[in-house]
Design goal:
The complex is a heterodimer of chains A (412) and B (176). Chain A is 65% helix and 1% strand. With 412 residues, chain A is mainly α. In chain A, helix 11 (323-349) runs antiparallel to helix 12 (360-395). Chain B is extended and about 85 Å long. Chain B has helices at 13-34, 38-58, 62-86, 102-122, 135-147, 151-172. The chains are: A mainly alpha (412), B mainly alpha (176). Chain A binds chain B through residues 22-23, 26, 92, 94, 96-97, 100, 127-129, 132-133, 135-140, 142-143, 146-147, 150, 153, 158, 162, 165, 169, 187-190, and chain B through 12-13, 37, 39-40, 43, 46, 62-63, 66-67, 69-70, 73-75, 77-78, 81-82, 85, 91-92, 135-136, 138-139.
């Protein structure tokens, strides 16, 4: 029973005629979409506050603490400030593309709400291509960055736009292939069925701990790293680099249009965490989620916030990577690794198994995941330790002693 | 009263949605052809692609619709936008893709439209039995067709992609 069906039934019982059922359905879906979208806009304020608090604690600061309890209203005040700011359109900007770009940046993020499974029976639409739908939406965001960069009539914005496209396109490939791993395991792209498949029955009791991360830790790791890059979070936020560069492709934007890019970025981080929870961390599954339905959304939101906290922890501790490091990491490490994982999983799932050993393929897939990640890590470690030695030699200050001529003697 | 002035039947909800999507597609396509700025043409093309995806969704072909967005909006449009941006002289300022033959082109387009519409109305379209309601079955069938009936075409396409990938690497490589 879906929650939307309950709402529709309620309205029909209020006396809506049967021939107007389509209108009732439309109204119900509109209410659902309206609530979800506005809740996520409010959520963005909370997310920004969380980020500020955590990052300031990591940096041994207190963070916002003046407006409201714990500084909760600081982001509200900032949003009001942005609302009242002047909306500047640069001279010679392409007005249409310039105005459309912020809308197109927020659009895919909010559209992904449609297939997010908050609880059993609580999903906008259980598309039969749910996972592919999420992937397709991710590719729309690229266009928004390109439009913003080009239409601003600013060479730095344009350069940054090219960079953001290069980054998003490269990291989309490992991300999509990592998302394929749980889909292969279950054989469906419906998000709700992916959630149901992550249960773990001991006898008749559902422990709700059959999360795919326990079978596919390698795929989860790759998904998490690529999602960081897709959401333009540290260590892959070199397009933004608030502390040292101009603000990337949205440099010319001000006021509410700038706020929309900001909003898209924070919500994107949160929803990529939600997708990680849906695909790998058991969705709404958890102990006693079957017995107490209210636990479903609580589990889901708790896990998603935990992933978001993890992203902010990474943000506070990791240094930013260079663009060449970032691109070579995607193409030389992540893509081959994820291809190996997917291929090995395909082969292992199709091995002939005895009737009693339905669990053997899962163990084999887990071993393949761990093995592939271990091999890649050891190869990378060896490469970088060797690389470090050569770099040390090249920049060792001691090696410079006696090779340079003092300035005073140079003129003699 | 009703007999004297027979009103046309009200459009159903699906028809209203289809009209909106068709309008998006047509307006997008018109922008592609008529806009004097190449980048605006690319944006119009994206709108038209979205409209086509919407038509697939209405026809309950979700897989095709999502693939349309993924491939055309995500990849092809980005490629087109890159090509336009990297072509200097087209980036800023108005470039007219129109020429003196626009009148002829309009006539030929109108004739093509008429002929296609007549053909579509005249053709007895085959009905493929029962509509498939189970979405998984559709995707599974597409997948099994790729590795059974159409395996040669599939492998040839993969080969073509591989060749173009290798070719682009050779073209863009550092020559020492």
């Amino acid at each position: 029973m879906n929650w939307s069906d309950v709402l529709i039934d309620f309205q029909m019982r209020l006396g809506a005629p049967e021939e107007l059922r389509w209108l009732v359905v439309a109204i119900t879906y509109f209410i659902g979409a309206f609530l979800l979208v506005n809740a996520s806009l409010v959520l963005a304020l909370l997310l920004i506050w969380i980020t500020r608090k955590i990052v300031s604690r990591i940096q041994d600061r207190i963070g916002p603490n003046r407006q409201g309890p714990f500084g909760l209203f600081q982001t509200v005040a900032d949003a009001l400030k942005l609302l009242s700011k002047e909306d500047i359109t640069p001279a010679n900007a392409d007005v249409i593309a310039y105005a459309l770009a912020p809308i197109l940046a927020v659009f895919p993020v909010l559209m992904s709400l449609a297939v997010i499974t908050f609880a059993p029976g609580f999903v906008g639409t259980d598309l039969n291509v749910g996972v592919l739908y999420l992937v397709a939406l991710g590719s729309v965001g690229i266009m928004a960055a390109l439009m913003a960069g080009w239409s601003s009539n600013n060479k730095y914005a344009l350069l940054s736009g090219f960079r953001v496209v290069a980054q998003l396109l490269s990291y989309e490939i490992p991300m999509v292939l990592a998302m394929l791993a749980p889909v292969l395991l279950v054989g469906t792209m419906r998000t709700q069925e992916l959630a149901l498949a992550q249960s773990l029955y001991i006898g008749p009791v559902n422990l709700g701990l059959g999360w795919f991360v326990f079978i596919l830790p390698g795929a989860f790791l790759i998904y998490f790293i690529s999602a960081l890059a897709e959401a333009e979070q540290t260590p892959f936020d070199l397009l933004e680099a608030e502390s040292e560069l101009v603000a990337g492709f949205h440099i010319e934007y001000s006021g509410m249009r700038f706020a929309m890019f900001f909003l898209a970025q924070f919500l994107n981080a949160f929803f990529l965490g939600a997708i990680a929870v849906m695909l790998f961390l058991g969705s709404w599954q958890g102990p006693f989620a079957d017995q107490i339905p209210l636990l479903g959304p609580i589990y889901f939101l708790a896990k998603t916030f935990l992933v978001y906290l993890l992203i902010q922890w990474v943000r506070g501790t990791f240094p930013r990577v260079r663009i060449d490091q970032m691109m070579s990491f995607a193409w030389k490490v992540l893509v081959p690794l994820v291809l190996v994982l997917i291929l090995s999983q395909m082969i292992l799932m199709k091995l002939p198994m005895p009737v009693w050993g339905g669990w053997i393929p899962y163990v084999l897939v887990l071993l393949a995941n761990l093995g592939a990640v271990a091999i890649v890590l050891s190869v990378l470690g060896r490469f970088y330790s060797r690389n470090e030695i050569t770099t040390k030699r090249a920049f060792d200050p001691k090696s410079l002693i006696g090779t340079t001529v003092p300035v005073s003697q140079a003129g003699d | 009263m009703a007999e004297l002035f027979p009103l046309p039947p009200l459009p159903t909800f699906a028809q209203v949605v289809f009209m909106g999507i068709a309008l998006l597609t047509v307006v997008g396509s018109l922008i592609v052809v008529l806009s004097r700025n190449l980048f605006h043409s690319a944006l119009g093309l994206i709108a038209a692609f979205f409209g086509a995806a919407g038509v697939y969704f209405i026809a309950e072909a979700e897989f095709v619709g999502v693939s349309q967005v993924l491939v055309y909006v995500g990849a092809i449009s980005t490629l087109i936008a890159f090509a336009i941006m990297l072509t200097r002289g087209m980036m800023f300022g108005v470039t007219s893709p129109r020429n003196r033959q626009s009148g002829t082109a309009a006539i030929i387009t109108a004739l093509t439209f008429v002929v296609l519409t007549a053909l579509m109305n005249a053709t007895p379209w085959p009905q493929a039995g029962e509509p498939i309601t189970d979405g998984e079955a559709v995707i599974a069938r597409i997948g099994s067709m790729f590795v059974n009936e159409y395996v040669v075409a599939f492998i040839l396409l993969a080969l073509l992609l591989l060749v173009s990938l290798a070719g682009s690497i050779v073209l863009a490589r550092d020559r020492k």
